Please model this.
Amino acid sequence: MDFTLKIWRQKDAQSQGQFKTYQLTGIGADNSFMEMLDELNEHLIKNNEDPVHFDHDCREGICGTCSLYINGRPHGPQKAITTCQLHMRSFKDKDTITIEPWRAQTFPVIRDLVVDRSAFDRIIQSGGYISVNTGGVPDANETPITTSKANNAMDAASCIGCGACVAVCKNASAMLFVAAKISHLAQLPQGKVEAESRAESMVAQMDKEGFGLCTNTGACSVECPKEISLTHIARLNRQYYKAKQASDYIPDKEEIHEG
Amino acid sequence: MSMKFDSKTPGGPLEDKWSKHIFDIKLVNPANKRKFDIIVVGTGLAGASAAATLAELGYNIKAFCFQDSPRRAHSIAAQGGINAAKNYQNDGDSVYRLFYDTIKGGDYRSREANVYRLAEVSENIIDQCVAQGVPFAREYGGLLANRSFGGAQVSRTFYARGQTGQQLLLGAYSALSRQVANGKVQMFPRTEMLDLVVVDGHARGIIARNLITGKIVSYSAHAVVLATGGYGNVFYLSTNAMASNTTAIWRAHKKGALFANPCFTQIHPTCIPVSGDHQSKLTLMSESLRNDGRVWVPKTKGDNRIPADIPEDERDYFLERRYPSFGNLVPRDVASRNAKLVCDEGRGVGATGLAVYLDFEDAIKRIGRDTIESKYGNLFDMYKQITGENPYEKPMRIYPAVHYTMGGLWVDYNLMTSIPGCYALGEANFSDHGANRLGASALMQGLADGYFVIPYAIGDYLATRSYDMVPTDHPEFLKAEHSKNT
Model:
């Protein structure tokens, strides 16, 4: 297959970037998108040109390292996969493919298609954990958890922290990322203890990093490679509301039921 | 060159060694722990759990990873599960049985004392992960679910869908993040270790490259913990991540850390076969699939009918035929060797003839498509994505691939390499899996080393050391830095 690639090249966060066009021929349909870029880079290196910088590592869709805005969509045209799982058979021969980095002020470009997502780490550091030390914990079967709670928690926990949700959001909001962690932990008895303070501190850090506000357009969930649902944002809002109204909040049905 | 090998394995009965050792080793009191700096290289299961736990104890940690975030280490890609001798299923499991299975699976080449300890602390690992909020699979009664894995006749594998490695790593990452917030861990992402610095025979620091600026920087400490994974990527194609490049343990080896059993490489039986010649890596399908999938090839050579057209009596379920008691759940090396054998006989399937079928037709009939989907949905999706074929309708094609390395840096019972003060954890060391690792035991070993072994073991060394730091303008640092700059 032959492709025309329009790729965003940018030296660093301070420099002005621009699109550069490359022609690539003889690409196999079974090649992954990353392998296609590998081939481009081999040509560039042979011609003494600077290779295109892009993030990637596991190439199995789980580490969350790869990014890329492909033809105007994060992780490309297909649903529920990362860029590294995209194969060239998803494109037509002679297609023009436009490749850009994640676009958000909170993810500054480091070089070409590589961005800085360390804001996500700082949000987790602000409270995305259960405060237990190693050792001295109860037996794992001491606390039964219903399959539905475990499943819902797992749905949220499957977030890979790639940042597609922020990149696609017109407000560059990180609500889906933050909600996934809060919802994962808030649904488990172990995580309930700190659920409200966690919501408060993680949201505060998210705001401090400069992520935009959520206007519930839902693009984040549509483009999420792990299909994290918007309902987790609702759960985050509820936890946050509870934290803010701690003095006089009304317990929800479930909690009354649990006594 | 002659060298004294002392594994420092404690005496006494196997089952008492670890508890006796914990009592016998020297302690560093809490106030003095603050006076020691420890470098941890790698933030996978072993590195992240070690960094977090050592920081909780009070040590000052500098943690390094080449990824842009510690959450992305390649432990994240482990799919199937983690073993533990909980005997929750009441099917005859015990610490001794897990120990025995591990030793036997490794062809009696691992160090018994280390493996027994591994089996002992396996139970604590599950407790710890649940306390951190790892969403393991549950039964309807709310208790933890288990499945069985290759090489075991009991059901002792805990799992979080097909993303167990991800969930365990995110648990360790959360503990690590908490310590970063507490100021006890200084995190250096996008930083790659280039060399180990040895001063007066002891590991005293590393040289590392900042992968953004290219700058080479020296870091000094009282001990260095390498949790940098295995060397699978020395092979042309493996299931390892692209940047897992083996260099850290190689540099340590060049500085004098001895390397043990480099030939012990695990060839994983259930990998998606190679297609085309520009492939950059191989993708693994969890071997948990062998719980429900049946492995077969046509009985006759060169039978290139589509699988649905091959009648039952013309199929050779070669694992079930040769190993009736384990069936499709034989250990990995046996499954791999047999798959290669039938392909060498000319009975391989697919375009290259280098593949065997992994068929779910019977399992779907027996327990239904929905159950199969809930157990393996993401693996089936991944297969479809890569091959363009639907495994609910057509059997998967699989072939063995380089996956894990049992060999690694030689370590003693305290996980110290032959360089005093330099430790190797997880896949980077050699001690626990002998000639072959059982499925779901890599996650167990990484977390055992990080959460429950190194926090005790390192004290025995540090308690004998002075608090003085080696300045980074010491000739050994300058020499190492210089050699990297030229």
In short: The first strand of chain B starts at residue 37 and ends at 41. Chain B has two domains: 16-264+406-485, 268-403. Chain B touches chain A through 71 residues (CB under 8 Å). Residues 268-403 of chain B form a domain with the Flavocytochrome C3; Chain A, domain 1 fold (CATH 3.90.700.10).
